[in-house]
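I trust your eye. Have a critical look at both lines of this record:
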Amino acid sequence: MIGSAAALGVAAPREATLFVIATFMPPFAQPDGLRLLASRESVRAWPGGFGFAKVGANYGPTLAASAEARSRGYDQILWLLDGNVTEAGAANFFVVWRTREGGLQLVTAPLDGKIILDGVTRRSVLELARQRLTTGNTPLEKVEVVEREYTMEEVAIASKEGRLVEAFAAGTAVSRNSSKRT
């Protein structure tokens, strides 16, 4: 959406034009998942910014860091903020792990810091998980859905201890496993 009124200046537009662009996505070439580079050097979004909004300012600055990750053999960046996992590339990031007590959790970053995009795909994943995986009406194991800050160190420890079940990224333009299910 762009302001399209015949005016020049910094103000809320009186008129706007909305463009909707649809395209087919080619199949992903990674049958075993995405390789993510956990980045402590670059930050995609920060408190007080616009990480919660679908605006170009959230994506343009990430292009150089993403190109660097690809040049090093990675598919995307797993964005961190002060060690906390936020998003993967331009998508929401989720982990499924076992707690030390043996319970199964689906964990993703919370919205309260306004650095995570609250898109329809994120909401759909969480709503479907809550509807279908948290009740006794499923043949699958119950899954606790958790929205909280979690660190890269927690993910690494869960993996080292064999508790990391899977991780995936889901967004408007992407939905892809980033690890094999164990």
